[in-house]
Amino acid sequence: MSQFDVVILGGGSGGYACALRSSQLGLSVALIEENKLGGTCLHRGCIPTKALLHAGEVADSSRHSSDFGVNTQFIGIDMLAVNAYKDGVVSKLHKGLQGLVKSRNVTYIEGHGRLVSKNEVEVNGVKYTGKNIVLATGSYPKTLPGLDIDGTQIITSEQAISMDRVPKSVIVLGGGVIGCEFASVWKSFGAEVTIIEGLPHLIALEDESSSKGLERAFRKRGINFELGTRFKSASKDAKGVTVSLEDGKTFTAEVLLVAVGRGPVSANLGYEEAGLTMDRGYVIVDNKCRTNVPGIWAVGDLIPTLQLAHVGFGEGILVAEEIGGLNPRPINYDGVPRVTYSEPEVASVGLTTAQAKERGHDVVELNYDLAGNGKAQILKTAGAIKLVAAKNGPVLGIHMVGARVGELLAEAQLIFNWEAEASDVASLIHAHPTLSEAVGEAHLALAGKPLHSHG
Ligand SMILES: Cc1cc2nc3c(=O)[nH]c(=O)nc-3n(C[C@H](O)[C@H](O)[C@H](O)COP(=O)(O)OP(=O)(O)OC[C@H]3O[C@@H](n4cnc5c(N)ncnc54)[C@H](O)[C@@H]3O)c2cc1C
After folding, report:
1. Which pLDDT score is estimated for 9?
2. Which of 35, 165, 309, 373 sees the fewest Cβ atoms within 10 Å?
3. Is residue 110 within 6 Å of ligand 1 at its C-beta?
4. What whole-number distance in Å separates Cα of residue 375 and Cα of residue 381?
5. What is the pLDDT averaged over residues 201-219?
6. What is the Å distance from ligand 1's center to 73 Cα?
7. What is the pLDDT of residue 2?
8. Does one domain contain both 423 and 282?
């Protein structure tokens, strides 16, 4: 059969989520993938990087175990074994996902697909017709003009996730989420790390308080960074890569990781020919992920929304449900949880102080220092939870820095998305001693009845 209700191009987070939900709704589905089912997130992104970060955490625990009265010795990192652990995690999840797609009766087509008309995708000379076409071709790591990725000395995250050694020194170009996560891993593995960021702060999209908290923690860990200074050029020799900045400074390291953002995979795929509205390679959609061409939809990193796997899942499900006639609510992108999985972690949901003010809110803020939290002391982590709220109104943003704070987002996103006020959360008893208690304490303080906090 080559006629389907839904033909999906790209089997990453956005594409496979759309396939699974569509088939659940009784639609016939074809899912086309040229590489591996699971896409960037499973094979080159979220999962492998988080496995590396966990190995880094274990390395740091063994280095600092005597702080807890446990005597161990950190001997070194065996990258072959680290990669075997990481690849094992990926492989298990990959097998599970393949089984899932099969069990849901999705027709899985391997090969390079191209949109050849408004309702057809061609793969290996065969045309697959869909009442609906969902484009989910994802993104690729960008570089800067004049900066050639050679894959050994000048690399992107694609090579960084499977290196067979720990480099002695690394320059990370770009202090966004991906750059900071790799900086954190390599520091834990024993490399000398310098981040170069053109904007005034690391993870500049986060609330300024979170950026400053991460910068403080990175400084303490001995991760170097240069902020507000732009890249000029890079040169290579046998010793490594030398990066020159516009302010005249130079840095040399064994490896240069280019982490300057990701661009949409949309060239030569027939998108323009089909008449799709595009902007700098991104496919433009409305709040239900509909393109300007009826029957063609687009999701995930291919559209200019937050480049996160769970956003891809959400958009894929949204499209399936819209096609299935369920008339789902559009996604509120402010309510999407965001995590940088470095040590320490940075997690947030909702608006930053600057965004809340821009939108005309009369803003109140509350900073709760994790120093007052028993579990944070037990873990020996530092950090804070910052609340941004409307005066006499709901919580507008929650911004957290500290070990494991990503896990606190489950509650934080309910608070934001259900438009809770501080007093609603203050009346909920949080388990003691947990890090989640800090979320409760911050809201107690914002509601005017602080318990374990000064002022
Ligand atoms: C290093 C790194 C770490 C990350 N960490 C996180 C994280 O911790 N949490 C998080 O939420 N997000 C993370 N992300 C982002 C996340 O991986 C992406 O947002 C997500 O994968 C986007 O899903 P997608 O379906 O849009 O695209 P992709 O996952 O890129 O999938 C697109 C798929 O389409 C296929 N394809 C493309 N063109 C064609 C064609 N012509 N024919 C057939 N198939 C085609 C590709 O092979 C690919 O499998 C990370 C990304 C990177 C790079």
Report:
1. 98
2. 165
3. no
4. 9
5. 98
6. 38
7. 85
8. no
